[in-house]
Specification:
This protein is α/β, with parallel strands linked by helices and 274 residues long. It folds into two domains: 64 residues, Helicase, Ruva Protein, domain 3; 185 residues, Rossmann fold, CATH 3.40.50. The chain is built from ten helices and nine strands. A seven-stranded mixed beta sheet has the order 5-4-3-6-7-9-8, sandwiched between helices. Strands 1-2 form a two-stranded antiparallel sheet. A hairpin with a 5-residue loop joins strand 8 and strand 9. The longest helix is centred in the N-terminal third of the chain and has 15 residues. The chain is elongated, with a radius of gyration of 20 Å.
């Protein structure tokens, strides 16, 4: 099968499976098989795919038709300024989370704690842009921490990673505490897209309760783990801003709710007085 025909066949197979953005996803899968960027496909000579290339593409298309996320199939996600390895043990970094990174880089501080680090995308992005800063990424999942360590090594960022359940076992104080915690209520899980519900780690999606459990823990322990004048930034679901901001305000912080590029509430910023 020639490359041009493979693009058409892959997109059509995904359309039949009901995959939104079928052509885009087929191109991402084929480009990964060929070891090029998707934007290069149109510039690549139309040639016959090898048997091995065709088999890998067909395998990838079948996986996507079963709603496996493209990032898991190709093994990476581009986030902020870097490419991060993604596995079934980590949450797929979303573009919306770049709002949190932008907010962190607007704040002062060189000692950074990222809780629930997953791929390490948040912490590594901040450290890469703020040379000289020090960072600790924590996660309850040892498998996720292995991915984060590998991402830091490949991107060339020095960071420490530690297995921890929120603040348990965390020593020292920090200028910035960052987190994209599990914020989906357990009652909402059944309504998620199968790409998310059936493939991404549930522990990174939901707290098993009302979706606010992690924020209660983060807010309650923030002052004890921040340097004077420190800040907390947490990603939230689009309806959670008032409730999460109130938790930090109750701990003495001044709070702001920051929107993402689509105008939806995305990040709560909590500024603690010096």
């Amino acid at each position: 099968m020639r490359l041009s025909a493979a693009r058409v066949a892959g997109a059509e197979a995904l359309r039949r499976a009901g995959i939104e953005g079928a052509a885009r996803d087929a191109d991402r899968i084929l480009a990964a098989v060929l070891g090029i960027e998707p934007s290069r496909l149109r510039l690549t000579d139309d040639r016959d795919l090898s048997e091995a290339e065709l088999a890998r593409m067909q395998q990838g298309i079948a996986a996507r038709a079963a709603h496996q996320p493209v990032a898991q199939i190709v093994g990476f996600r581009d986030f902020y300024a870097h490419r991060f390895r993604v596995t079934a043990d980590t949450l797929d970094p979303r573009p919306d989370t770049e709002t949190l990174v932008d907010a962190a880089l607007r704040l002062p501080g060189h000692d950074i704690l990222d809780m629930g680090t997953g791929t390490g995308a948040i912490l590594i992005s901040v450290l890469a842009a703020r040379r000289g800063a020090r960072g600790l990424g924590t996660d309850i999942s040892d498998a996720a921490l292995k991915v984060a360590r590998d991402n830091a090594r490949r991107i060339g960022v020095e960071a420490r990673f530690q297995q921890a359940d929120w603040y348990d076992g965390i020593d020292g104080r920090f200028d910035l505490i960052l987190s994209n915690p599990p914020y989906i209520a357990v009652s909402e899980m059944a309504g998620l897209a199968p790409d998310v519900r059936d493939w991404e780690p549930h522990g990174a999606l939901t707290d098993g309760g009302d979706g606010l459990g992690a924020y209660r823990v983060i807010a309650a322990g923030a002052r004890a783990h921040l340097n004077p004048g420190g800040h907390v930034l947490v990603e939230i679901g689009p309806t959670q801003g008032p409730a999460v901001a109130a938790m930090f305000a109750a701990q003495g912080a001044e709070t702001r709710v920051l929107p993402d590029l689509d105008g939806r509430d995305r990040v709560v910023q909590a500024d603690f007085p010096a």
